């Protein structure tokens, strides 16, 4: 079983891969799996396009700026807490955790949006 490393978590691949099946049966199964994959592609394209606004470079830029701002706030909070030299309080750790979580969620959303474009679920309008 292979593992895919994404930015923050691991996902297991569990696709069945027959080893000793009849070649004709393997072709039939591959054809069926291709139909399943295509169905998933069409479903993703239709559902995502219906739920998200039209995409252009400005949408990506706004999300990138939001993500960069969240990252800077997270690191800024950590640096601010380290200035005193005293151990962080539970409230300070909660603020730091909240800032990190906000950054990580925005970064994952950006990567998810980018993947949607790469996979053809969304198209980007030209300027």
Strand arrangement within the widest β-sheet reads 1-2
Number of helices: 3
Number of strands: 2
Question: Cα-atom Rg, whole angstroms?
Answer: 22 Å
Please bin the fraction of helical residues: 55-70%
The percentage of residues in β strands lies in under 5%
Let me know the largest β-sheet.
Answer: 2 strands, antiparallel
- List the domain count as a whole number: 2
Uncertain residue ranges: none
Secondary-structure element order, N to C:
EEHHH
Through-space gap between termini: 43 Å
Q: Which structural category fits the helices and strands?
A: mainly alpha
Q: Shape from CA axes?
A: elongated
Average the pLDDT over all residues and give the rounded result: 88
Biased composition (Basic and acidic residues): 14-25
Region (Disordered): 1-25
